[in-house]
Protein 1
Amino acid sequence: MDNLGYLFAAYTLIWIGLCVLVFDIMRKQKKNRQEIETLKDKIEK
Amino acid sequence: MRRRTLIAFGISAVMIIVALVMVFIVCPTEATMGNIQRIFYFHVPVAWNAFFSFFVTFVFGIVYLKTRNPKYDFIAESSAKIGLVFATLILLTGMIWAKPIWGVWWTWDARLTSSLVMWLIYLAYFIIRSYISEEEKKYRFGSIIGIVGFIDIPIVALSIQLAPTTHPKAMIFNDGLHGTMLLTLLLSIAAMFAVYFLFMFLYYDLRTDEYEIARMKKRLLKEND
């Protein structure tokens, strides 16, 4: 009674899910930083 | 990526690798359930971290209401986000574990139902916040929901002691885990705490940047008027 498919599914779900989330946040952070720089330039002008 | 996030990323990666080696290579196979029991080494740490995340939301909700400093709401909100992610993983990994052992994906017993209620409470936390446009009001309502919602956490934690349930009882405090299995569980818990701090830095920085953008846009709008 090993049910390795279920075990694989659970661990894949956890780690792929968390990795996708980390990269999604990093992508949003990069976009925000660019927007901050653009706004800073506009304010300084 | 900021320096502290980079450090948290490195620590998390190393701890996750160590925990995975322990879970899949070092730790012996459990006699009754077989290999599927290895889900336990992440299902339980994810649950502990979800409780911890909601506790942080609870504490910083109180701190926000006392100080009215938005940065405390950002910490509370970031922690609630991590808690909701972890709560989702508790439910999903629990269902994947339940199917081969209980024969069903879901059953309405005390632990599972109270966990689902916990998930719904924190989902509501974000839905309600998203409907409030006024910043101060959003922080205030968020803090109140974060404080009141925390009532469900002791119910989830104690449900296996207080109500008849098919969910296994807590083994770590009852001398039910020994040697390598206990060490594996503790290492997995530590790895998940490292992941918690990594996400906390990521979400907090994201939230402060969004706040800064909103502030700058307001300033530009005022200057143009």
Protein 2
Amino acid sequence: MNVKKNIAETVKIVLPLFLICTLMVFLIAICNAVTSPVIERNKQKTFDRSIATLFSIASTEKLKVEKLSFPSNAPATLISAHRIYNEDLPIGYLMEVDGIGAYSGKIRMLVALDCSGRIIDLLCSEQSETPGKGDRVLNAQFYSEHYIGKSSQEISVSPYPALSGSTKTSDALYSAVNTALEGYALLSNDATGGPS
Amino acid sequence: MNAKDILLQFKNGLFDRNPLLVQVLGVCASLAITTTVSNSLYMGLAVTAVLVCSNLLISLLRRFIPEQVRIAAYIVIISGFVTIVEMVMNAYMPSAAAKLGIFLPLIVVNCIILGRAEAFASKNTPLPSIIDGFAMGAGFTIALLLLGAIREILGSGSFFGIQLFGQSYTPIGILTSPPGAFMTLGCLIALIQYLKDRLQSKTKASADQTHKDVKNKEVEPNDL
């Protein structure tokens, strides 16, 4: 009798909580159905705009993006690699990489390289660094001072690019750039359609 | 519920029981996010949206939620609304969502929201609960804007990203760092306390004066 009573009491407590969870899941599902296509569209637009900005192309209409597959020994932080064409002419490569060890986890960077593996430009696509603090290294001025126009060899012999107060983000950015350059090198050595 | 009650609730939220400057709740995210005014505004609006929605649902379900699991239920409701606000911001205000970064999902652990759920929404009907959400949210937003404005103007020499002073201005760099945030918040809390004390002593003085006047009027006929 007591067991039955206990079960009834437990159900009385747990059931409303279960129903509340179901209600919230339902609300989130509705919201997700409405917002996820918009989020995807935004992501694609941002990606196209990023390519246009990184490669200094005025219009995205004549832009062609070819996704490349990279070898199995590629670093896990190399997310994707693309060959970029403007009016059917290859103009460079875009590496999507993660920089690990940032203050708030990781940063995701888009690294544009020309056909010879020199950095054209950088863009941060995802980050959760402290606003006004860690994110100070994720801007055009810092990129142009330390990375833009440089090749893998030049970066390895340059002074370590770090900003006081944003050391962890600087480290993550450095690791992201190196991953992108490593990815380029791997694709160069790979016969399956990488840079030649 | 009449207009006087609504005004009283807004007075509470904005001044008497301001969540950040009087109750000192939600300090962690507030200190981190208020490096710029725009970040402060986005954070304030996001928290207000979550406050209003969670207050409404908790108030509607107040008789249905068992006493033993009420905190768990509130957290489920609050985290659900935070996820919804995050999705909406990612879809329609992506730059604002990117600026808030990790502090947007962290609204779940903001004590103001759970505090209002427990102290107000769980004991009141939906309409006062919605108004309470708006009032507390407005108080929090204004406090963040004040903090953000001081830190951005003095710490970076700009307002909403627009440079206010020329090259000759040397920003007070410490204000953009965490110690600067603590100092600015401390000064604002002190200012609010000073204003509250002044207002209270003025009210007390005028009440005393009225009391004396009434006494004098009562004494006058006997003297004559």
